[in-house]
Automatic annotation (TrEMBL):
A matching Pfam family: BPD_transp_1
Gene3D superfamilies from the UniProt entry: MetI-like
Residue ranges occupied by any ABC transmembrane type-1 domain in the UniProt entry: 66-259
Family indicated by similarity: Belongs to the binding-protein-dependent transport system permease family.
InterPro entries: BP-dep_ABC_trans_perm (IPR050901), MetI-like (IPR000515), MetI-like_sf (IPR035906)
One annotated GO biological process: transmembrane transport
Chief location: membrane
Membrane topology term: Multi-pass membrane protein
Record keywords, A-Z: Cell membrane, Membrane, Transmembrane, Transmembrane helix, Transport
Species name: Streptomyces hainanensis
A cellular-component GO term for this protein: plasma membrane
Protein name: Carbohydrate ABC transporter permease
Cellular compartments annotated: Cell membrane
Amino acid sequence: MSPRELLGRVGRYTLLSLVLAFFALPLLWLATAPFDRTPEIAASWPEFTLDNVRELLDNENALRSLRNSVLLAGGTCALVVTLSALAAYALSRVRLPGRDGLLYALLLLSSIVTGTAAMVPLFNLAYELDLIDSRLGVILVLTGGLLPSAIFILKDFTDATPVSYEESARVFGASPLQIVRHLVVPLIRPGLATIGVWSVAQVWGNFLIPFLLLRSPEKSPAAVVMYTFYTEGGQPDLALISTFSLLYSLPVVLMFLFVSSRYGFRFHGGIKR
């Protein structure tokens, strides 16, 4: 190996090490700060204690907000997966004029007109429908924002399922809903799992929509309640924030690892013919 090649390899590994450290140090802080008696925004050896965990478990707002996050994420996930599966199947099998253009237009609009840009009309709509301070209103708004992308992803999975399977099922008298439930859904299960984890992650970290639509503190999810963890002097309570952040991130990480090990994450369909 020539000196030039050696220097190039050393430079690449050094750059990769710096990038890895840039992303790893905050995660290392998040893993150690909850068990540090005096956590600080600095790299230091923690003085081990479980007092921060006990303080968090005694905080009624923290645990209640996690339950609210579970309700919002679970309800949105159920609606997104169900509606996107039905819509993706219909768009995949029914030949409508301008079908592909409509699908791309919905995907484009959902990417351009994000939740921030659309919050004024969404708030007015929720107000007219009497959905302010309602978990159902938050779930419906979040579902509407996630559906276009979910339909776009699931349509590819549905396109990969052979139509001949459905034709055989129709011969034996299966209805369209029975075909979707017993034939299409098992074949696109990896896609459904991907959409489920993706929708939960999107809702789990969403701050703006619950903050604007929910008025009662007892209905606020964890992403909103975390904003209140400050001392009387206005300084962030690092012990409480770090412990809550670790607990807050665990459900999504565990779900991601479970689905990834069971189905894997991919954005295309496929079946052996």
